[in-house]
Amino acid sequence: LLQYYLKRVVTAESVQITDLAASTSGMTGADIRNLINQGAIMATLQDEKAVTTPILFDALTKIRMGSARSPQQNDEDRRITAYHEAGHVLADKFSPAAQFKIVRATILPRGHSGGHTAWVPKEKSHTT
Prior knowledge:
By secondary structure, this protein is mainly alpha-helical.
């Protein structure tokens, strides 16, 4: 489905469809269509000539977590959030049993979250 909908928008050759597919497990066809449409809108708003992998992951984050909110945090709260998200990254990086690959970490608040770390499975899984 990703390939089907990506053919309908101008897409950068460097789009990493494998990582994107791993991140969309459990999404319906309509969800995936929405993802690609959101990516195309974001690319247009950013004056990009094509949809890229980072733009598609931004669109996925917007769909799953909500729109970014303006940071109401003070410097101390942002620092604590940064340490927290960095802890997820370090735990994954140095855990020999880690089964996931981190694709993004941010302290940009979305929804009820002060930050977010996103993973994809390191190996293919045939379950949803």
